[in-house]
Each structure stands twice: as C-alpha cells, then as structure tokens.
Design brief:
Layout: E1 5-7, E2 13-16, E3 21-26, E4 31-36, E5 47-49, E6 56-64, E7 71-77, H1 78-83, E8 95-101, H2 102-112, E9 119-121, E10 129-136, H3 144-153, E11 157-164, E12 169-176, E13 191-196, E14 202-206, E15 216-221, E16 227-228, E17 240-244, H4 250-264, E18 269-274, E19 286-291, E20 296-310, E21 313-320
Amino acid sequence: MVSVIHADAHGREIGYLEWCEGDFTVGRLNTFELRVPPSDGVRAGDYLMVEGTEYGGVVDGMEVDTTRDYVTASGRTWHGLLATTVVVPDPGSERLVLTGEINAVLGRLIERQGLGLCMAASGEDSGMRLDGYGVSRASSRMDAYTVVTDALRSVGAKLRVRYDGGLRRAVLSAVPRAEYVSDGLDGNRGDFVVRTTRPYNHLHCMGLGEGTARAIVDVYADADGNVSTTQTLFGSDHKAKVYENTNLEADELLAEGMDELRDLQEELRTCSVVSDGSERYDIGDIVGGVSVEHGVDVTTAIASIVATVGADGLTLETKTETEV
C-alpha cells in the first residue's frame, strides 16, 4: 500500500495515514477524494500527499457517514490550488507580463498568488526563458494553472509538480515537453489503443430569425476531415446533426458552424495510453500510436492522470486530449 502523508494546515507533517483508498485526478478535474480512518484526525485545511509525486493537495471538505468505518476527505490537488486562483494584472495595467528564467517566474507567480505556504519553485535553472509572455485582463484563461501551462507550452515546456517532504512543499518546475510519438505501437516504450470512429460530417446550422426568414446554412466535412459547403458523403456514410445559435446572422453562422464541424473531426481518431502503473508520462507530453498492420496513426497529448490509492499501491489511468 502506498504511504500517504498527513500534514496540518500549516504544512507540518503529522505522519502517514494508517490506510487510505481513493484517487487523485490531475490535469483536468484537479481534485481528489480519499477514504481515511476517523482515528487519523484528518480535517478541512489539512494536506494529504504522496512523497515525490504530484499526487497531493489540500482538504476542502469532509463527509461523515456513521454507518461506515471511514470518513471521506475531498479537496483540490496542487494543480487545483493553482486552478482556483486568478492571475490579475496590476491595477491600471491591461496585461501582466511574465519574463525571465521559467523557474524564477514560477517562484514569483507562486508568491503573487499567495501560495508560498504550500508551494515553492525549483531553484534549478531550467535552461528555458519566457520573453514577454502576457496575461490579459480581458482573457478567459486567467486561472494560474492555465496561465502556467499555456506559458510553458509556448516555449516547448511542461509543468512538473513533486512534493518534497524536506521542504514541506510541492515543488513546481519547468522541464522540456517530452515527445513519444516515435515510440508508438510499433515501438518498445509502451502500448497504445488507437480508436477510429466516424465523426459527424454534416451540420445543419440554424441562426437568427423565425420561419422562412431564419438564417440557415449547411456545412460538410469530407472523408479526410476537410470542411466546406459542399456535400461529398451520402447514404450510410452521411452523419448529420443540428447546430443552433439564435444570435447569429448567416455569415457569422457559416463561420461558427465550420469551426464547430472542424472540432468534431477530432473524433476521427483517438488514442489512449495503456499504463502498467509506472509514472512515465507527464501532463502535456506528446504521445502517438502507429499500427502499420492496421493502417492507423494518431498524435495527441497527455491531458489527465487518475492516480488510485488502494491495497495494491498506486495505479495510474492516463487519458489523452482526444479522450477527455
């Protein structure tokens, strides 16, 4: 069984939980839910984490069911703590500009967001820089997790989070974004499942107006996923649905409908990673699968990892951007 550290609200380690079951989800949900013994005294505001991993965070809530021999602790992972703070430019400024060696930038951002009690940035030089990366006051992508991951991706990097018991903090660092496309199904690194599906290839788009005066356009995708106003697939190859936005005139409706149909073409191929439980991929790593025998290939990125804590230790379920 994996050892889960219990620390108080000040980050002071109390010890290891007697036992623990549940999961940490990082990358998308960025939350955790763990069943723990009542005798361990876990309470809201405490921290639960696994040494040397990104699986940990702060307890936000407790559920007590008197018919059970456990209580359930739920909260935000380290990623979730970042995701629930907003990076706001200084008063009077339209943009916050991030410049410098990336780990140093991460350190300044941690302090700016008030997370210095539980997080720190690596003191090592990442060898990578941000040169004037801007966060706009008008952006919808202002949470600190999105800001960090977007900024790092812009220079080919990814965020790595590891809990360090010596520092009593989760340590954030920037490392190069790994690429494993060449190690796909025909390689030796690991196994993939590549799925192909028939995406929608016709959107009947309905916009502003009523009756015969209503704005209506039809957009189509061909067998290669190219989008236009010309239908090329018919009969059982044809797959259609209605798209509606009652605020758009015909021209705007056409542009938005084409964008929507392009997004739907992502369903054409998906790739999942078959994990053996070892921690080989980080969020943001580029992965791919190729099967010469079956004539399929795909390139995508790791988007979510679910780490399940149980009697068998720590097991991982990895999902790519095409799955979540």
